[in-house]
Amino acid sequence: MAYIDQLIGNYGYAAIFIVLALGLFSLPIPDEVMVLLVGYFTKIGLLHYSFSLLAVFSGSLIGTLVSYGLGKRVGRPFLDWFAKWFKLSNKWSKKAEHWIVKYGAPGIIVSYFIPGMRHVAGYFCGMSHMRLKTYALYVATSAFLWSLLFLTIGRIFE
């Protein structure tokens, strides 16, 4: 976490955007903890709240849209490679896939608040050929609510 603290200190909003975008489709980083830290930085005056909200929202949105695109283009083989690379069992992917099939687009909003689900929901939505317009609407709503919640919690609590 000290590394992320240093990145934000050196590169500001661009670091927030890039780390969240990469984190939501590839890097295993603690997104919630990072956004809480950014919220705290807004409280002590290191960052501006509105710009931070924009960076968190847009980074998380871009990351999930990239994962959707990967799911749509390369599908299951990429997901299997990803799971093998991170030494994950197939159990998590079956649960996530079942969740998306069962609840569809509205399930995206709920899944965004479940650690781990947010990271893979885009792949499964892309693999299931959910319409991009539908996915983008629900994921943008989710990303905004998630960003607002965690940034605000980080700002309120020390």
From TrEMBL:
Keyword Transferase: no
InterPro entries: DedA_domain (IPR051311), VTT_dom (IPR032816)
Keywords assigned by UniProt, alphabetized: Membrane, Transmembrane, Transmembrane helix
Gene Ontology CC annotation, any one: plasma membrane
Chain segments annotated as transmembrane: 12-29, 49-70, 99-115, 135-157
Keyword Transmembrane helix set for record: yes
Boundaries of every VTT domain copy: 29-155
Family listed: Belongs to the DedA family.
Name of the protein: VTT domain-containing protein
